[in-house]
Prior knowledge:
The chain is α+β, with helices and mostly antiparallel strands and 152 residues long. The protein has helices spanning 22-38, 75-87, 105-150, and strands spanning 8-16, 42-58, 61-73, 91-98. Helix content is 50%, strand content 31%. A four-stranded antiparallel sheet has the order 2-3-1-4, sandwiched between helices. The termini are far apart.
Amino acid sequence: METTTTKKPYEVVVLMHPDASLEEQKDLFKKNKATIESYKGSINSLETWGKRTLATPIGKLKKAIYFHSTFEADTQAIAELERTMRINDKVLRFMHTRLDERTSLGKFMEGFKKGLAESAAREKEREAKAAARKAAFAAAKAERSERYDKGE
Length: 152
């Protein structure tokens, strides 16, 4: 009986130890690329999001290096990728997510980047409003302080 394996689209987010060297980071993704290609898969994109603060600490670590990748592979490749990432001490967390097969990876990445840009714009807007509130509060406090000094 012949089994056919079909490539399915996936994305993965990997959190690496903040002290991981550039060489260790490259080695991990070279191994991942080799694993995917050995199962006749292909990598669509790999992005480094850099060192970011974690929402909740992992052990005593408050920061991690984030990576995001999209690729096509079969389920056996995913099992092997997860096995190798569990072994690697520098990988703190990872999550593979199977994407909708009806959407091409290119379209997915366009939508993903658009969502990131919108999220960043909302965050900037929130920060600007917070800064304006802080400035208004400081001005009101200074005014009250002046009136108090004058004895009003």
